[in-house]
Amino acid sequence: MKKEKLRVLVAKPGLDGHDRGAKVVARALRDAGFEVIYTGLHQTPEMIVETAIQEDVDVVGLSILSGAHMTIFPKVLNLLKEKGGGNILLIGGGIIPKEDIEELQKQGVGRLFGPGTPTSEIVEYLKKYFNIEKK
Predict the structure, then answer these.
(1) Of the four, 45, 93, 114, 122, which is 20 to 30 A from 16 by CA?
(2) For every residue of the chain, which 3-state class applies, written as one string?
(3) Cβ count within 10 A of residue 56
(4) How far, in Å, are 28, 40, 71, 109, 111 from residue 58 at the CA level?
(5) What is the pLDDT of residues 69-111, one digit of tens each?
(6) Residue 14: pLDDT band by 50, 70, 90 thresholds?
(7) pTM of the model
(8) What confidence score (pLDDT) does residue 18 get?
């Protein structure tokens, strides 16, 4: 899939109130030339998917630090498929154990980034995934 300008939704699901990382990632993606929509805190999976569909995004990035990743990622993935957004890439970040990362990726979740990941790594992953050439 060849894209010139990716649309990325960055969301903070659940009750987790720590959004600094999500804001840093959103800014880095915007600085890299992507269109970024940041939903803010305390989003439900339904709210995230509704926004993703309405905004016609290419990527949904979830930031989860609450430990609810094994519930929230599959819920968002399933809702995306149900609502016609099965082509939307779901990625994320947060504190997620390696075995959970492997299980979520088997279910269809894209790359998951842990704390301390350089934002350039996220940008490069998306550019490679969507076959966007470096300018």
Answers:
(1) 122
(2) CCCCCCEEEEECECCCCCCHHHHHHHHHHHHCCCEEEECCCCECHHHHHHHHHHCCCCEEEEEECCCCHHHHHHHHHHHHHHCCCCCCEEEEEECCCHHHHHHHHHHCCCCEECCCCCHHHHHHHHHHHCCCCCC
(3) 10
(4) 17, 18, 22, 14, 14
(5) 999 999 999 999 999 999 999 999 999 999 999 999 999 999 9
(6) confident
(7) 0.94
(8) 83
